[in-house]
Specification:
By secondary structure, the chain is of the alpha+beta class. The protein has a single domain, classed as 2-Layer Sandwich (BirA Bifunctional Protein, domain 2), CATH 3.30.930. It has eight helices and eleven strands. Strands 1, 2, 5, 6, 7, 8, 9, 10 and 11 form a nine-stranded mixed β-sheet that branches. A two-stranded antiparallel ribbon has the order 3-4. The two termini are 22 Å apart. It binds glycine (GLY). Glycine binds next to β10 and β11.
Length: 282
């Protein structure tokens, strides 16, 4: 069984082999951005590059970022302690392209890493694409009117059509915060239920339904806009790939567990707590 350390390293090695510069995680407390208190995604440290305010030193970058989702737009606090796959602090594996590759390569890399390198079962994977959006009734402002047919067409090279699902603005248009970089996204979900359950209920019907064993593992964001304070969308100077994969969830899937807490990221810590407190973790 691959350890969590090996899984993390294989992600970094894979993207290094695709000419990505591996960079360190940024601090979790954001110091120079009044729109954000804590790092909520891997892309935060690249915000100024994405907006065109900083030079692009490396057009391809990958890392593993420590994130805290306890406030603001991406807040998981209500889920923590209630389910098996949300955390206050978690690690996000990510790869970026700043004006270099776009959807075709980002999708192909993600598929290659999950199915060729990590050998996840293709039949257990589902993807979502942005279904498009109607203008807001009051402001007549739309996020984007069109379905992301381009992403859907690329996914069809890898998956049957009944594994490609439309998703709404809530799930498939990723925004860093109330303002800042944003764009349509494609999520990869995995069904880790036992075969007997999969025979009874199609995994397709459980995607985005808060099922603890049919969960999102990787989000591929196709950044194209900057959301302004008045709500309008301004095109970015470059198209940007911004991906985020839940490291703890990936380890759960690879290690054949049904809870993130049963992976070797947590079990040594839990064993130590058991020793100190005399209580058994069940
Ligand atoms: N920036 C991608 C994500 O957090 O899902």
């Amino acid at each position: 069984m691959l350890t969590s350390k090996e899984i993390r390293q294989s992600f970094l090695d894979f993207f290094a082999s695709k000419n990505h510069k591996i960079v360190p995680s940024a601090p979790m407390v954001v110091k120079d951005d009044p729109t954000l208190m804590f790092t909520n995604a891997g892309m935060n440290q690249f915000k100024n590059i994405i907006l065109g305010n900083d030079v692009i030193k490396y057009p391809r970058v990958a890392d593993t970022q420590k994130c805290l989702r306890v406030s603001g737009k991406h807040n998981d606090l209500e889920e923590v302690g209630h389910d098996t796959y949300h955390h206050t602090m978690f690690e996000m594996l990510g790869n970026w392209s700043f004006g270099d590759y776009f959807k075709k390569e980002a999708i192909a890399y993600a598929w290659e890493f999950l199915t060729d390198i990590l050998k996840l079962d293709k039949n257990r994977l589902y993807v979502t694409v942005f279904e498009g959006d109607k203008p807001d009734a009051e402001t007549q402002r739309a996020t984007s009117l069109h379905r992301d047919n381009e992403a859907a067409e690329i996914w069809k090279q890898f998956l049957p059509e009944n594994h490609i699902i439309n998703g709404n603005r809530h799930d498939n248009f990723w925004e860093m915060g109330d303002t800042g970089p944003c764009g349509p996204c494609s999520e990869i979900h995995i069904d880790i239920r036992p075969e007997s359950e999969r025979q009874k209920v199609d995994g397709l019907t459980l995607v985005n339904q808060s099922h603890p064993q049919v969960i999102e593992i990787w989000n591929l964001v196709f950044m194209q806009y900057n959301r302004k304070a008045d709500g309008s969308l301004e095109p970015l100077p470059n198209k940007v790939i911004d991906t985020g994969m839940g490291f703890e969830r990936l380890c759960m899937a690879i290690q054949g567990k049904t809870s993130n807490y049963n992976t070797d990221i947590f079990t040594p810590i839990i064993a130590e707590i058991e020793k100190i407190t005399g209580y058994k973790y069940v």
